[in-house]
């Protein structure tokens, strides 16, 4: 309710939403660990 009362644009209502939001701003390797150590520039 704090975000609603503070007239925030975005309300993250549960832990799943919080984790999803954090994942969207993380590097792509955080979502796809198999990419760790690869270099996307050398694959083009």
Detail the poorly predicted runs: none
Strand content of the residues, in percent?
under 5%
Oligomer: single chain
For the largest beta-sheet, the strand count, sense and barrel status come to: none
Structural class: mainly alpha
User: Could you tell me the radius of gyration in angstroms?
Assistant: 16 Å
Q: Helix amount, in percent?
A: 40-55%
The end-to-end distance, rounded to whole angstroms, is 47 Å
Shape: elongated
Question: What is the number of E strands?
Answer: 0
Average pLDDT number: 81
Number of helices: 3
- What series of H and E elements makes up the topology? HHH
Secondary-structure map with pairings?
Layout: H1 2-5, H2 15-24, H3 28-31
How would you explain this protein's 3D organization?
The chain is mainly alpha-helical and 44 residues long. The protein contains 3 helices and no strands. It has helices spanning 2-5, 15-24, 28-31. The chain starts with a helix and ends in a 13-residue tail after the last helix. The model has no long low-confidence stretch (mean pLDDT 81).
Task: Give a quick precis of the structure.
This protein is mainly α. It has 3 helices and no strands.
Quickly list its features.
mainly alpha; 41% helix; elongated
């Amino acid at each position: 309710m704090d975000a609603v009362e503070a007239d925030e644009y975005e309300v993250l209502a549960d832990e799943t939403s919080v984790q999803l939001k954090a994942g969207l701003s993380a590097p792509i390797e955080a979502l796809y660990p198999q990419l760790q150590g690869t270099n996307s520039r050398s694959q083009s």
